Amino acid sequence: MLIRNKLILRFTLLVVGIQLVFSAFLYYFQATTREQRFTGRLTTKAAMTTRLLVRRGGHVDETLLHQFRRHDLFTIPEEQISIYGPGQHLLYTSADGLSQLRNSEYLDRLVRGQPVHFRDGPLEVVGFRYVYHDQPYYLFASGHDDLGLAQLRKLGLIVVAGNLAALVLIILAGWYFAEQALRPISRIIQQVERIKATELSARLDEGNGTDEIAQLAHTFNHMLGGVEQAFESQKSFLSNASHELRTPLASVLGTLETAYAYDTDLAEAKRSIGSAVEEIKKLAELTNGLLSLAQITDPAFAQEAVRLDECLTQALDACQRRYPGRELRLAFGELPAEEVDDLFVVRGNARLLTSALLNLLDNACKYSTGPVLARLDYPTPTILRVRISDSGIGMAPHELARIYEPLYRAGTATSAPGYGLGLPMARRIILVHRGEIRLTSQPGTGTTATVELPAMSE
């Protein structure tokens, strides 16, 4: 169901529900008021009749009765009055053939002083106890409230007709307000439908910038910015990957074609084959790097306790073997003030963490000739930090902004061996371990890579 229809339905049900409750209350109030008013008339009429009819000794003055009925301007339709004396004997009834069956059922309650109100067919009956000259009398008065019931029926018709007419108005009002409320969303839908893969730079109108619709447009614009950046990164990745793959493939193809056309002895053929093998090794290394980068996405493996100092030591040893003459230093900084049983322990995968640290050390050695310092410390009791610093060529700010793009290499480093996969791979590994990585650099001064990982608690 469309949101517009849901809003209309809920708005209609809510308003109609409130209206029905109010109508029921109004009808009930009117019915109760009519009943009380008519009961009061019956009670007053019975009491007046008793005062006029009951004389000394409890005798009924029939002459006075006829005079009273002739001059009574407030006679109740189908009026019936029965009067019982102190001994619960019937003293008077307004009609000789009037049945006293229902009255006798409630007489005991009047004797106990409890007034009664009941219906006898279409008639409404009230009974009450009346004391006259210290003598108790028991009165039953009944009648039919023609005027009150007619007004009540008319009120019921008005309520029903008014609710039906109001229902139509409520539906129209709900449709109008739902249309007005959802118009900004319709506008956003139209704008989104015009955005294509080639127009990701387009943005939605954020309206007044304060309501929920504006927040939705702002969120969508932020998402579009991320999608646009991802598309640009993908285009850059594909462009660089095709270039990096094309170079060794062209070299292998050229070498083999030359060998096939011109090599005439075994020695020349071996040299050509050796050159092709070296290019194929580079191609295999690049392909494996791309595959490894694509596979580092699942954090489910990070469940084991790992000694980060051991990972760093293994990475330093491996880097020392790659660069035998380079000076690599390991230093320890601030440690927790309280004694910790699991010092330098994080939760993760030792092989991946060692690979990430080795990539950072390899970059530091590759782009500098001086010593490389690795420092391990606790900036806070819950954070483990590794800093790898060099005094190499450094990077400009615009280069630093793109260092995590796969296959991107800074302009000053294009002559160094590599494919621009080390930093992106290290970053993914650190993020998978719920950590952070930051690089600071100045051209001609050096670069510092900072890795922070959550320390493992007991």
What does this structure look like?
The chain has 458 residues and is α+β, with helices and mostly antiparallel strands. It has three domains: 3-150, Beta-Lactamase; 212-295, Helix Hairpins (Orthogonal Bundle), CATH 1.10.287.130; 299-454, 2-Layer Sandwich (Heat Shock Protein 90). Helix content is 54%, strand content 17%. It contains ten helices and twelve strands. The protein has helices at residues 3-53, 62-71, 101-111, 146-194, 212-262, 266-295, 308-322, 350-366, 397-400, 422-432; strands at residues 80-84, 90-93, 116-120, 123-132, 135-143, 304-307, 328-332, 345-348, 372-380, 383-389, 436-442, 446-454. The protein has a five-stranded antiparallel beta sheet, with helices on both faces. It has a five-stranded mixed beta sheet with strand order 7-9-10-12-11. A hairpin with a 2-residue loop joins strand 3 and strand 4 (123-132). Helix 5 (212-262) packs antiparallel against helix 6 (266-295) and helix 7 packs across helix 8. It is elongated. The two termini are 51 Å apart. The model has no long low-confidence stretch (mean pLDDT 79).
